[in-house]
């Protein structure tokens, strides 16, 4: 194990580690906090909550986002909910059960201590958000409501219709706005971080570009927090916002921060299928729909072919001619198996010729039985014990609309199909990235003073994230973890004084940034940035996507190396360096994606096992389930940048399991 991969996990029993750590951690007194500057990059749930909390505590915070407002961060797109072990439904939930489900859901590839802490603080998050006025759904008696999500057998997901991320972000944004108004947070909208500056080995600031004026700026601080989200857009088509990128994390990686488990990417099973080459992003349908929607394909190939040809409607197919394949294969969890399992099962059916849209890459998500079930229940409540089918259907639709209305509306707007009348069509798509910057228990990377929060780090989800845990992790890191742990680091900086941005270190990094941008603008190629991004995306999806194998990964690595060479020869960036230039922004991000894509394939090739979202075709059971290799691969793969993107150095953090038994995941 490398010297720099000390995970800093506290001693003592699992349930006491975080409490003990908080008691032992060094503090910074209020008068000294006023002399300390912290930079927060990104204003999604992790960034907004961290910036607001640190400012409230008295630090001087500078917050950066490339959007025109922190409200536009991609956290806003989360639909289904946020997990917390409150046991409001009295169905046997507990902190330990949330911890266990998360470890098991991640296929035993995450750190016990981090995951337990996440489960422990989850309950506080809900209280904090309710206090901020987040309008969570409530039951008839006024108590907060819960629904189920994949990979668990309890209802622990709190939600606000199908717009939970938006409501939580507005809560965090209001806390942030309060600190901006007080002058404790200085907000830099329309700014993109393009590099990290290290002084004496510590992160001491960033170089950012003002995206409106094109000006390159130096910003100093005693600590830098990266809250910049995931890298799913390496695949070009994903459920991520078009602007989501890896640049901040990748520049940190190039400055010495290890990139952990980059091949662990999540394919979400319920996405609106791809409709053509002209498409530039995909739209997610919330996992909450799997609570009531049943997933199926026709049992007979000829029925699937007739549906694809437009000769047969799904509603015309009798119940006995439908294959509810998740209920058939995984009776204990049914439609609520984890995302990686549901995605591979859909791919298997479509590859076998049972897909239902014109491309053959879609399955049905059907609400008809839920509508009838809810309708009968509602009729009973109204005292009508012999209602007509029409009435049952009408009442059932009203219940479904209350629970999922905006999601149904969104689906209809995009596809022009009414999901109340005909089943939705869905197919897996790239969604979340479990890999990210390596961090220790304090969320600090192996560059002192450089922290990573939320989806930008690797820490809590192992090889697969359970639904509704992304919002939980982002807010846990920002509200309840980093405000403690950053103080332990900053306690040494109370006499440091303001960071001098006129130092030779800042000057050197700024020059590198300017030279890189100038090179892109001066490159007189003949191809657009998107041309290269689409080609990278196709290589990644086909050879490092839902399934990977040795031959495909080796081909992908060779193809990406050739693509990188071609990119720097042939890319054309119109416009100038100074001033507004979205193509220049995009070019820098795609250059980083190309380097990351190669590392993802190297990581996937190196891990000779299947686990969670990393499915190597060579390592599977006869019925297509993942085969882990705990003897050889029970570690975090933390890749170090060597100066050449094609020759990364592998460091390993061995994972210890003292509180859960390592066993084959089964959802049957």
UniProtKB/TrEMBL annotation:
Protein name, per record: succinate dehydrogenase
Entry keyword annotation includes Electron transport: yes
Catalysed reactions, as listed in the record: a quinone + succinate = fumarate + a quinol
FAD-dependent oxidoreductase 2 FAD-binding domain mapped to chain residues: 37-471
Enzyme class: oxidoreductase
Residue positions of the active site: 339
The Fumarate reductase/succinate dehydrogenase flavoprotein-like C-terminal domain, residue ranges: 533-667
Organism: Phaeocystidibacter luteus
Cofactor(s) recorded in Swiss-Prot or TrEMBL: FAD
This enzyme's EC code(s): 1.3.5.1
Family membership noted in the UniProt record: Belongs to the FAD-dependent oxidoreductase 2 family. FRD/SDH subfamily.
Molecular function via GO: electron transfer activity; flavin adenine dinucleotide binding; succinate dehydrogenase (quinone) activity
InterPro entries referenced in this protein's UniProt entry, alphabetically: FAD-dep_OxRdtase_2_FAD-bd (IPR003953), FAD/NAD-bd_sf (IPR036188), Fum_R/Succ_DH_flav-like_C_sf (IPR037099), Fum_Rdtase/Succ_DH_flav-like_C (IPR015939), SdhA/FrdA/AprA (IPR030664), Succ_DH/Fum_Rdt_flav_su (IPR011280), Succ_DH/fumarate_Rdtase_cat_sf (IPR027477)
Compartment(s): Cell membrane
Any one GO biological process: anaerobic respiration
Membrane topology, from the record: Peripheral membrane protein
